[in-house]
Structures are given as C-alpha cells and as structure tokens.
Write a structure and sequence with these properties.
- The complex is a heterotrimer.
- Chain A is mainly alpha-helical.
- Chain A contains 7 helices and 4 strands.
- Chain A has a domain of 57 residues.
- In chain A, helix 2 packs across helix 6 and helix 5 packs antiparallel against helix 6.
- Chain C is globular.
- In chain C, helix 3 runs antiparallel to helix 9, helix 5 crosses helix 10 and helix 7 packs antiparallel against helix 8.
- Chain C has 2 domains: 245 residues, Cytochrome Bc1 Complex, Chain C, CATH 1.20.810.10; 106 residues, Orthogonal Bundle (Helix Hairpins).
- Chain C has a two-stranded antiparallel ribbon.
- Chain C is mainly α.
- Classes of the chains: A mainly alpha, B alpha+beta, C mainly alpha.
- Chains B and C meet through helix 1 and helix 2 of B and helix 2, helix 3, helix 5, strand 2 and helix 10 of C.
C-alpha cells in the first residue's frame, strides 16, 4: 500500500471509528449495554423422535395412541380443521376404522324436502370443530381461543419438543417474583411463563388399547407424534424421495464433472 | 442444459479438434440429465390430475330405502345426476318384452341391472346425445324423454327414438345392503 | 431488426432450412452456441445461468401452484394447505417454490458480489449492471408479494409493515398507502392485487433478463483478470465448454436445492407463517425472509420512520452509481490489494447487517445496526472513490491468456 493511500485511509477510518464511538456513547453512556429483554421462557426439552433426521419415519402405533389422546382430551377445545378422517389412513387406521370414526360425528346437510338435517360423517369430511366460531371458542375459554392443532408442530419453533415440554411442564412451583393471575397457570416453557390452558394430561387419562402404560409423558409423546403427522403427513414419502433424488443428483453431478474435465482437456 | 454437446462447432485456439470421438462420459452425463428432466416433468403433470379430496368424493353412497316402486330418486356422483329408479313388476316385464336385436344399442334388461335386484335401474342421468338431463315419466316408451332434441329412452334406460346414439350409461355400482348402494 | 432489402443466405435443406429461411431461429441458437467467451472464467461466472434456471423453476412451479391457489382472505391459507395435503405432489411444488425463492436470491447475491470483486460493472458494462439492479428490485417486489399470498401471520404483518412505509411519505403518503392497499389496512383487496402482480412481475423479469443477456453479448463477458479479450487466443465458443461446465454447476446447485426441499424445507422460513393471519394479534417479532434482512436492518437503524425508508431504498439506489463511485482504472479486484481487503470487510458488514435484521431492535443491536449501516454507505461513498484514486495496483497482465 502506498504512503498517500495509507495516510488517507487511516484518517478516514479513524473518523469512522470516532463517529461510531460517539454513536455508542450517545446511546449507552460509558457503560456496557444492558442485556436485551426477552419474554421469559425456558428452551424446550429435546426429545428423541422417530421422525427426526433425514431417514426419519412415523411411529404409527404411537400416532394411533396419540389420536386417541387428541380425541378424548384435546378435541374438547382444539379444532383440527385441516385434517380429514381419510387422512388417518397414513397413520395405519383401516378403511373400516376410519368409516366408523367418521360416522360418530354429524354434519349439517339438506334433506329431500329442503330442510336442514344432520347426516353421518364420511371419511371425506374434515374433523369437526368443538366451537362454531373463534369468538365462541374464546368466550368459552376465558378470552383466549384455543388454537387449531392441525399445523401446531410446524407453527412453533422446534415444534415437537416445544409441545412435549408444554404438556409435561405443569406442576412446577413458579418463581417468587412471578405473578400468576387466577384462571391462568404457570408453565416455564410458554412465552412469559403464564399459560391460559390448564394442565390437559393426567396419569391414565386415556386407556390405550395396545396396553401401553398411559403416563403423562407417554400421552404427551404419543400426541406429539400424532400432531407431527397431522402437520406433515407427507414427511416419510418426502424424505424417502429426497434420498433417491440426492443420490441420483450426486451421480449425475459427478458424471458432469468428469465430462467437463474431458471436454476442457482440449483447451488446456 | 446441454442437449447433445458432443457436436463440436469450432475450437477457439486453433488446435485440431476430433469431433468423431463420442466421449462416453459426456453422453452418460447428458443421458442422466434427460432422465432427471423427465422425472421432474411427472409431478408437474400429475398435479393437474384430480387431487385427493376430489378422489375421496369419487364414490358416493345412496340410501334407497324410501324409494317406492314406480319412483325415481336423484343422486349426485362426480358432478353428474344419477337416476335411481325402482320399477314395478309390470315395467320389468315390459322391458324384457322388447326385441333387443332391433335396438340401436342392443342390451338386455338383465345386462343393465344387478342379479337379485332387477327392480332397480341405476343410470347416469345425462343424455348420450349432447348431455342434457332427460325427464322421467315422459315419452312414448315409459322411461325418459330428453327435451333438448327429443331422444326417448325406455324403462331400462335404452335409446328407442331420437338422435342419441347409446343407452343411458350404467355407472359402476354395487349393493352394500338392501337399503344402500355405492356408486363409483 | 434486419433490413428487408439485405441479401439473405439461400434456403438450406430440410425442415430446419425451411424454418430458418423464414425466421432465423436456428442461426440465432447457433450464434449462442458460438458466442465467444473468455477461456479463463471461473465458477463465479456460472451464477448468471443458474439464476436463469431459478427464474424458470419459479415460473413453472408458480403457474402450476396458481391452478390450485385461491387469492381470498377466507380461503388463501386453506388453499395452500389443500395444495400441501390433497394436490398430487402439491407439497413438492410448494416447497420447491418457497425454497426456490431463497435459492434465487442467494444465487443473485453471489452473482452481484462477483461483479463487485471483479469490477464487472465498469465501462463498457454500466448499462448491463443497471439492468441487473432493476432485476434485483423486481425480484424483491415479486418475493415480497409472493410471501403475502399464503396469508399467514408473517404474510399479513410483513405486508402491514412494508405498506406502512408509503404512509410515511410527507403530505401524500396516506393517499398513496391507501391506494396501494386498496383499503385502510392490508386486507382482501391487497391480497387479490398482490396475487395478480406476483403472477405478472416474473414475466417482466424474464424480459429484463433477455435485455440483460443482449447487453452482455454486445461487448462479451468480462473475466477474472479484468483485461478485455484481445484476440482469438483469448476465447473459446460457449458450446461445448461453458454448456458442460454450467451443467456441472447446475448439478451442484440442484443437490443443495434438493437437500433443502426434501429434508429441511421450512428451515429458511418462519414458523409464525403456519398460523393463519389474525389482524388482532401481532407476532412478537415481525421478521422478513432472510434475503431482506440487511435492508430491514438499514431501515430500522434510522430513528425517523420516513428517513429509514429513504435509507433503505438508498442502499440499493447507491448501486446505480457504483460504476462512477469506483474510480479505479483497474477493473479486477485480483490486482487491487487494498480494495480486496475492503471488499471482504464490506461482505462481513452485509452479513452482520443481516444478523442485526433478525435481532430485536433493542440494546446493543440498535447501535451495532447503526454503525453497520453507516459503514455500508461509507464503503460506497467514501472508501471506493478514495481507494480507486490512490491505490497502487499490482501489474495487470497484457492479455488474459498471458495471465498466470
């Protein structure tokens, strides 16, 4: 670097640093900046899931148990509007089972005489919502509408671990400086650590037909598997297809590289 | 992407080029590229086929318990009307009396009904001429009359008079039990 | 184009000859194959054609997605889920399109930084550079509108933040903002028109790309030495050398693309966009997609809202002046040792601005963002002119063939 340039640059950069320092001081004075405030919450507890990783698969037994947990516990408040009964097929339910599940619900229809009637649910119907409107859901739940769960595993950062942590995160004692209003509950994994949902899962709340012991963590584990399935039903197919695609592309790219070297040999 | 890059048009640096050397690697790489491109085309094309929710509605169950002899019930299947007609014994006898060989689209009544359920005629309610919906109980043949161009069908849904080329289409269906049929 | 009175070559044999005599399309494709290209281009020169591939992928997947999407507030979110769950390969099309937007931007950013380093924007390629900057602006418009279409929380609130910029223009701001939105807040009218425009803009980009390539071919490609082509010894035909090299480049590009689509499709996105838009609930952190983060950081670093918008647009506007701001007579950064250092510092500054953009606008992030913003303009408006004028460059080779 020549003399003239270095002098000029030193001058300019010094001026820049000076301005930067002035900006800092005007903001913070002569002390360190305070840490940035976050809404308090604990990071989710990482779990092992069968669907993790590039070769992940669905644990269909767990998903079926998780469906039972959703049906018997969660569906009282949480809708699952994007999922149709026929979507349960990918979780291992048979056509007959799906037909029976659907037939348990009624849906509005029009009778032959034009009046409003109810008809039995079909596999092509979507899960029925517990509340007609969002406002009704909020009104019945202390002002906070329970969110739809179809996409919950994708709609939260680190979704499956987050949901599992929330569901198993109740029962702890809140820190002394935290005010928990009545009608709300302490859960360290929720943003702000105060959640409107009461503890949904209890020991042996659901009777698993395959004999699995229904501890809270088991119920949580199974319902998370179910929610991951409802959020990303295509996951297994997608990852399997991905493996084939990446291997094919890898081979094709290597071929193209060798072809490139051979053609370019004429230039060098 | 290079399609067939083995043809050498000109070499810039004056060296002698040998276009006759079909480099295997170049061919192989291009071949894989073409395979890849075709594989990519399929999802784009298949996405335009009926989606899963449409396919889920591609069969429909119809409750026929309230249909009396001599009555028709209409249902919808794949966006089209279906006539479910319950024939009286007289109507069935009339259908069987017809000389099949003289029909434009020869079919016996038996061919158009299910065994043990000869009372029931299930047809797509779309005229095979140009697609209008025929009216039940009209026309000279005791069946249907199409108001658009005058096609007339008998009580087995067969074309008897008028411009329609074929009998009313019998969709794929089956009796789940005596009260219910599944179409499609 | 051509003169009707000019003598034409005689019609050649076959169908190709018949077509070519009437519309010289095959002569044209042959000229593209024979396009004389510097023989020393490195892989950074492949990113232009990769960007072209990205554009085609976005258009093709976009058209097919549009067959299933409903641009109405009550139905948009559900229609996207319908695509994901019910449409055959719908999930694949959607993820390709969403990831594809990110791949398009990373490709174009590398393409732009290649231009920065090698001085590709210099005489006689200033207009080529301008067209490129306009393409970038069009891409940003298309991407912004596209992100609104799924009508998730980030769609709605990102649109609310960006359209509120126009409200901040003095005097006429509110009228313009309302006109743009079609209402007093981002709602159905906004969504519907964004869909129409999102479908349109990529075809404008396509036209701009054609002109971009036309401008490029007029003087030919630059090269890593920055020394213009002088003789036949310096060049090789585009086909087969750069066609096969680009094919290899596409292969690497598609591998990276595929890994995202099939294994981590939502990594570059934001989970909040899987929550249906709710005008009553603001997400705790409104963040744009990663490719807008540096500009978002510049926007937020100015305390005055309107001036923040001015600063953000200026950060792109300054690029139009680059051919004159960079006063160096030497084109390529290879022979400019001081410039090289500050090039890397600038890259770090831009990456740092991206980090600031996704951080909350509190505490030390604010000051950090302001310093980084100041440095961004300092680089273009002060450093480049000064270094260009005063730098002692390394000796530039006589021709690109003779370069080591």
């Amino acid at each position: 670097m020549n003399q003239r340039l270095s002098t000029v640059l030193v001058g300019l950069l010094s001026a820049f640093f000076l301005i930067s320092a002035l900006m800092y001081v005007s903001n913070f004075g002569f002390k360190a900046p305070e840490p940035v405030s976050h809404a308090k919450k604990e990071m989710p507890k990482p779990q092992q899931w069968s669907f993790d990783g590039p070769l992940g698969t669905f644990d269909k037994q767990s998903i079926q148990r998780g469906y039972k947990v959703y049906k018997e516990v969660c569906s009282a408040c949480h809708s699952m509007k994007l999922v149709a009964f026929r979507n349960l097929k990918g979780a291992g339910f048979s056509d007959a089972e799906i037909k029976a599940i659907a037939a348990d619900y009624t849906y509005p229809s029009v009778g032959e005489d034009g009046s409003n009637v109810d008809r039995k649910g079909l596999p092509s119907d979507h899960f029925k919502s517990p509340f007609e409107t969002k406002e009704a859901a909020a009104a019945a739940n202390g002002g906070a509408a329970p969110p739809d769960l179809s996409l919950m595993a994708k709609a939260r950062e680190d979704g499956p671990n987050y949901i599992y942590s929330i569901l198993t995160g109740y029962g702890k004692t809140p820190p002394s400086d935290l005010q928990v209003p009545s009608g709300k509950y302490f859960n360290p994994y929720y943003s702000g650590q105060v959640i409107s949902m009461p503890q949904p899962l209890k020991e042996n709340q659901v009777d698993f037909q395959d004999g699995t012991k229904a501890t809270i963590s088991q119920e949580a584990h199974d319902v998370v598997n179910f929610l991951q399935y409802t959020a990303e039903p295509e996951m297994e197919l997608r990852k399997r297809m991905g493996l084939k695609v990446v291997v094919f592309l890898g081979i094709m790219t290597v071929f193209f590289y060798i072809a490139k070297l051979r053609i370019w040999a004429r230039v060098h | 992407m290079a399609k067939d890059s083995t043809k050498n048009t000109s070499c810039g640096d004056g060296e002698v080029c040998d276009p006759s050397k079909r480099d295997f690697m170049v061919l192989a790489a291009n071949g894989l590229g073409v395979v890849g491109a075709c594989t990519v085309a399929w999802p784009l094309i298949d996405s335009m086929n009926p989606s899963q929710d449409v396919l889920a509605q591609s069969s429909v169950e119809v409750d026929i318990s309230s249909v009396q002899p001599g009555q028709q019930k209409k249902a919808m299947w794949r966006g089209k009307p279906i006539f479910v007609y319950r024939r009286t014994p007289q109507q069935i006898a009339d259908a069987n009396k017809v000389d099949v060989a003289s029909l434009r689209d020869p079919q016996t009544d038996k061919e158009r009904t299910k065994p043990n359920h000869e009372e029931w005629l299930v047809v797509v309610g779309v005229c095979t001429h140009l697609g209008c919906i025929p009216i039940v109980g009209e026309g000279e043949f005791g069946g249907w009359f199409c108001p658009c161009h005058g096609s007339q069908y008998d009580i087995a849904g067969r074309i008897r008079k008028g411009p329609a080329p074929q009998n009313l289409v019998v969709p794929p269906y089956e009796f789940i039990n005596d009260k219910t049929i599944r179409i499609g | 184009m051509s003169d009707p009175l000019a003598p034409k070559a005689p019609q050649e044999k076959g169908i190709i000859g018949w077509i070519n005599y009437r519309l010289p399309i095959f002569d044209f494709t042959k000229s593209l194959q024979d396009y004389l290209t510097p023989k020393n281009l490195n892989y950074f020169w492949s990113f232009g054609s990769i960007a072209g591939v990205c554009l085609m992928i976005q258009i093709i997947t976009g058209i097919v997605l549009a067959m299933h999407y409903t641009p109405q507030t009550g139905h948009a979110f559900e229609s996207v889920e319908h695509i994901m769950r019910d449409v055959n390969y719908g999930w694949l099309l959607r993820y390709t399109h969403a990831v594809g937007a990110s791949m398009f931007f990373v490709t174009v950013y590398i393409h732009i930084f290649r231009a920065f380093y090698y001085g590709s924007y210099k005489n006689p390629r200033e207009l080529l550079w301008f067209i490129g900057v306009i393409i970038l602006l069009a891409m940003m418009a298309a991407a912004f509108m596209g992100y609104v279409l799924p009508w998730g929380q980030m769609s709605l609130w990102g649109a609310t933040v960006i359209t509120s910029f126009f409200d901040k223009i003095p005097v006429i701001g509110t009228a313009i903002g309302t006109w743009l939105r079609g209402g007093f807040s981002v709602d159905n009218a906004t969504l519907n028109r964004f869909f129409a425009l999102h479908y349109l803009v990529p075809f404008i980009i396509l036209g701009l790309v054609v002109i971009h390539i036309w401008a490029l071919h007029h003087h030919g490609s630059s090269n890593p030495t920055g020394v213009e082509v002088k003789s036949k010894k310096d060049v090789i035909p585009f086909h087969p050398y750069y066609t096969i090299k680009d094919c290899f480049g596409f292969g690497v590009f598609f591998i990276i693309f595929a890994i995202f689509i099939f294994f981590i499709p939502n990594y570059l996105g934001h989970p909040d966009n899987y929550i249906p838009a709710d005008p009553m609930v603001t997400p705790p952190h409104i963040v744009p997609e990663w490719y807008f983060l540096p500009f978002y950081a510049i926007l937020r670093s100015i305390p005055n809202a309107f001036l923040g918008v001015v600063a953000m647009f200026s950060s792109i506007a300054v690029l139009f002046f680059l051919p004159w701001l960079d006063t160096s007579k030497v084109r390529s950064g290879r022979y400019r040792p001081v410039f090289k250092v500050f090039f890397w510092v600038f890259l770090v500054d831009v990456l740092f601005l991206g980090f600031i953009g996704e951080s909350p606008a509190e505490g030390w992030y604010v000051v950090g963002g302001r310093i980084a913003t100041l440095y961004y303009f300092f680089h273009f408006l002060v450093l480049l002119p000064v270094i260009g004028k005063l730098e002692t460059t390394r000796p530039v080779p006589a021709s690109l063939s003779e370069a080591k």
